[in-house]
Amino acid sequence: MSVTTTAAAPAAPVVVPARPLITGGLAATAAAAVATVAVAVAGEAVGISLAIGGAPIPVPGFAVLTVVFSVMGLALALVLARWARRPRVAFVRTTIVLTAVSLVPDVLVEASTATQLLLMLTHVVAAAIVIPAVARRLSA
């Protein structure tokens, strides 16, 4: 007597179309850029210095760096969408860790505590906008 068994093939990863991921990610990037500028302007309006080591941070710099790092996050999402078994989980976990790591330089810079906290707030605001917007477009 012989027994034949078949092993179930591993499920192929669900391929997420890139276009909605890119357009949604870019829209979130734009919203985050506006939001970080608004946070910086609001902080300045209440008297928080935007100077690090005596050199002022130009307000448009908040938007530029938000766009640069959000696009890098979007690129990460595209890679994970293609190669990760669970892209949404991998993206959220990775970007939360990266957001936490991004706060370290803000603590180390030569600036007032209020300035350091304002800088950290801009990171958290950008992450709170971009991470969920991109994650919801990735397969679980």
Automatic annotation (TrEMBL):
InterPro entries documented for this protein: DUF6069
Keywords associated with the record: Membrane, Transmembrane, Transmembrane helix
Highest taxon of source: Bacteria
Transmembrane segments: 21-42, 62-83, 90-108, 114-135
Protein's name according to its UniProt entry: Cell envelope biogenesis protein OmpA
Organism: Herbidospora solisilvae
